[in-house]
Write a structure and sequence with these properties.
Elements: H1 3-19, H2 26-29, H3 35-51, E1 56-62, H4 66-72, E2 78-83, E3 103-112, H5 123-128, E4 130-140, H6 151-156, E5 163-171, E6 182-187, E7 190-196, H7 204-217, E8 227-229, E9 237-238, E10 244-249, E11 254-258
Helix pairs in contact: 1-3
This protein binds 2-oxoadipic acid and magnesium ion (MG).
Magnesium ion is lined by residues 60, 62, 105, 107, 138, 140, 229, 231-232.
Organism: Streptomyces glebosus
Keywords: Lyase
InterPro entries: Fumarylacetoacetase-like_C, Fumarylacetoacetase_C_sf, Hydratase-Decarb/MhpD_sf
């Protein structure tokens, strides 16, 4: 695989994102695109984002729950990059014009208090690196038409990253059972889906361990101060104009995103 091909694919995906035009999955034309090359494309999209002034602030996990895996027809989690350009300030409406076909999902978010590097990270050692736990809502958006993709496609597309907003309560991870933490998704005040943290790899700390080990294999360390979005607890719902979507977490409060 040539560097040129990887650079071209990354530039094309960012161009779709910037111009809000979706397209066919890379694997339609490139059926043997493997995961290592897909991550190289993802890393190249990050290099391009950094070149235009964005800063890495953490990572996101995708497809950590069965609800998401079933819907997307992909049966493995993945990791991707979060930059400061993806932060939606608390209380602001989602900028619908920046997205192609945004969808919203409730997630548990970690703020790391110390560096974390795989291999060999377990749910317990992962939790030891967590400083704060918060609720969050992620707005995902795919550069592929109708969200049709296979695992290498969605890896290359930075796991459908869009924007995210953090919740009102930050708690220490000590003494909370995050497997039991509820997350319910409401559209215009009506509950449309519910789950608990156990939906995310059995426990969100297990998802964090996956991220540390997966990134560790590729030579990356999760840094103190980084945010980690652990993945949608429920299936995502479309974010439409004049609707309000809320995620209600048990001890982590309520996160509202209007559009
Ligand atoms: C893939 C990205 C998934 C999550 O939390 O599972 C993701 C997608 O559903 O388009 O952010
Ligand atoms: Mg997500």
């Amino acid at each position: 695989m040539t560097t040129r091909t990887i650079e071209r694919a990354a530039a094309a995906l960012l161009e779709r994102e910037d111009t809000r035009v979706d397209g066919e999955p890379l694997t339609d034309e490139w059926p043997d695109l493997d995961l290592a090359t897909a991550y190289a494309i993802q890393d190249e999209t990050l290099r391009l984002r950094e070149a235009r002034g964005e800063t890495v602030i953490g990572v996101k996990l995708g497809l950590t729950s069965r609800a998401k895996q079933r819907r997307m027809n992909v049966n493995s989690p993945l990791t991707a990059w979060l930059t400061d350009a993806m932060v939606l300030p608390v209380g602001e409406p989602a900028p619908l014009e920046q997205f192609i076909h945004p969808r919203v999902e409730p997630e548990i978010l970690f703020v790391l208090g110390r560096d974390l590097a795989g291999p060999g990270v377990t749910a317990a050692t992962a939790l030891h690196a967590v400083d704060l736990v918060m609720g969050a809502v992620e707005v995902i958006d795919s550069r592929y038409r109708d969200f049709r993709f296979s695992l290498p496609d969605v890896v290359a597309d930075n796991a459908s990253s869009g924007a995210f907003v953090t919740g009102p309560v930050a708690r220490s991870a000590v003494g909370i059972d995050l497997a039991l933490e509820p997350g319910s998704l409401e559209v215009d005040g009506k509950v449309v889906d519910t789950a608990t943290g156990a939906a995310v790899q059995g426990h969100p700390a297990q998802a964090l361990a996956f991220a540390a080990n997966d990134l560790g294999r590729r030579g990356h360390t999760l840094r103190a101060g980084w945010l980690v979005l652990t993945g949608g607890m429920t299936d995502a719902v479309p974010l439409q104009k004049d609707t309000t979507v809320a995620a209600d977490f048990g001890s982590l409060g309520r996160v509202v995103v209007g559009a």
